[in-house]
Amino acid sequence: MAVAELTLSSKNYSSWSLRGWLLCRLAGLKVEERIIAIDDPENRAELLLLSPSVLVPRLTHEGASVWDTLAIAEYLHELYPQVGMYPAERIIRAHCRSVSGEIHSGFANLRSALPMNLKVRHDRFPIFSGAKPDIERIETIWTECLDAYGGPWLFGEKPTVADAMFAPVAQRFLTYAVPLSPRSAAYCDAINGWPLMREWIDAARAEPDDIEELDIEF
Length: 218
Hints:
The protein has about 220 residues and is an alpha+beta fold. It has helices at about 15-25, 40-45, 70-80, 90-105, 110-115, 130-150, 160-175, 180-195, 195-205; strands spanning about 5-10, 30-35, 60, 65. Helices cover about 50% and strands about 10% of the residues.
């Protein structure tokens, strides 16, 4: 497959970069990574949830420039439908698109209360009450999918776009020791053990830079 360029931000903090990278790897698209410096003002504002600057992720491939994770997912699915990034059956595929869109566009309280930080693990962490409905909704989505399609992934035996979209959420839950049902906890463990996730985490831990504002102990 053709070589492409994927623009990314911090692997430790940027959940959107993680999603874009996982989608490219699911598609089997070989990419050259271009990392935006963590001290870039726009990048820093985006990581601190102060500005949706849309710097990352951005996929450049054969003349196309594609940003936004769902746009990247659809672009890759069009290119490589045989890979199975979405379920083959129409109704199940619609379900996958729906839950992927929901996590893409919502859950602002969760994002602000539990920012992604792959370098740390808390034994306990006070969760802002406004984030609790988001957590409950995510658990409902996961339970419905796992019950309907049998797991271990949200739509069956292999990862799909939905798992790439929810992977940062699973990592947030692990980082902040969020109390979960056994089914949800098992799904988080599956995401954490995913070889692609382990590769990303290893790279994140090797990053020398930190954003002090995202390392505050509350």
